Amino acid sequence: MTDTHSPNGAAEQAKTTPSDESVRRLADAVAHLGNDPEWFLQALTETLLAMTPVSPSKLSKQQELFLIESGTFTAETLARTRERVKRGSLQLGAAQAWLSHLSATMSLDDAAGFLGWSDEALRSAVTQGRLYAIEVSGRLRFPAWQFNVGSPQKLIPGLTDVIRVLTPRRGPISIAGFMSTPQSSLVAAGRKTPVEWLRDGGDIAAVKQIVESDKWW
Questions:
Q1: CA distance 82 to 84
Q2: Which of 52, 125, 150, 168 is most buried (CB neighbours < 10 A)?
Q3: Residue 11 is assigned to a structural domain of this protein
Q4: Which domain holds residue 171?
Q5: Do residues 193 and 181 make contact, with C-beta atoms less than 8 angstroms apart?
Q6: pLDDT tens digits for range 11-20
Q7: In terms of domains, do 67 and 81 share one?
Q8: Phi/psi at 198 (nearest 5 deg)?
Q9: CA 146 – CA 155 distance, rounded (Å)
Q10: Are strands 191-192 and 183-187 parallel, antiparallel or unpaired?
């Protein structure tokens, strides 16, 4: 355990604890977004706490030498990579992915307004597998890829089948990535994403085949 009463312990504590100014700026930045700051900070905090902490490099000297001699890294690039990882580049990338995913979802109120449904109808549709939602810090969020403003139902065709085949296999970020990535077997005037394919009347069976074959990785 670090002794924070010793000079060295206090220095180590300072390195791992953000300053009051940094915390204040984070709070100001969240407030600047104009959303629910308490919920957003809680969700962000839970996400960060779930991440794996930075750990020292586990590469042996022999492994480092192999990476350099194989041309994968130079000594300089390996050192820079190690330093970036130490400073939290991997966690920052994961946080950015989470924020990007969250920004592509709707709140319960927004989804209800878009579809013209009651909150109860939305919750019921989620329970029945007719609508896809994820829970973020105690609140339902609805990934935007499932909505289709050009459809009378305002949902992509085949959504129930998509939910049934995808959710047992992948998590929400992976599902969102798949639905927005052009697939080599979904071709009609060019490669299409599953969302585009379904919105344009493509056969849901073609999407299900990709998922079940795991050929979209």
A1: 6
A2: 125
A3: no
A4: 104-213
A5: yes
A6: 444 456 888 8
A7: yes
A8: -70, -40
A9: 6
A10: antiparallel
